Amino acid sequence: MADFPVRQDESGNWIIDGGEKGIVEIYTSLEDVHSAISHEEEIIIFGGSEIYKLFLDDPRSEIRLSEIHGDYEGDTYFPEFENLYEEVSREPKEGYDVVWHKRKL
After folding, report:
1. Lower CB count within 10 Å: N or C terminus of the chain?
2. What domains can you pick out in the chain, each with its CATH number?
């Protein structure tokens, strides 16, 4: 496992420098995320369910969802989003599909 340098910026947010793999910024509040990003930047949200819910109302958001083939038991699910988003493409893979959803206008 690679050992990437971790530091805090002047606002106290954590930064992980992945070198050629890029920079990862970690925020601990929704307000910090919105103040730090521009409209041109791509951000990727890694949830849990409650974290995903925070971003579903953002009109700029897209969802890239892996749909695993099969039925599995679990106690946590991706939040309901179909009323706000529409499927725009689907890429079949072995055992799952990568599905892109864009916010409905």
Report:
1. N
2. 1-43 (no CATH), 47-105 (3.40.430.10)
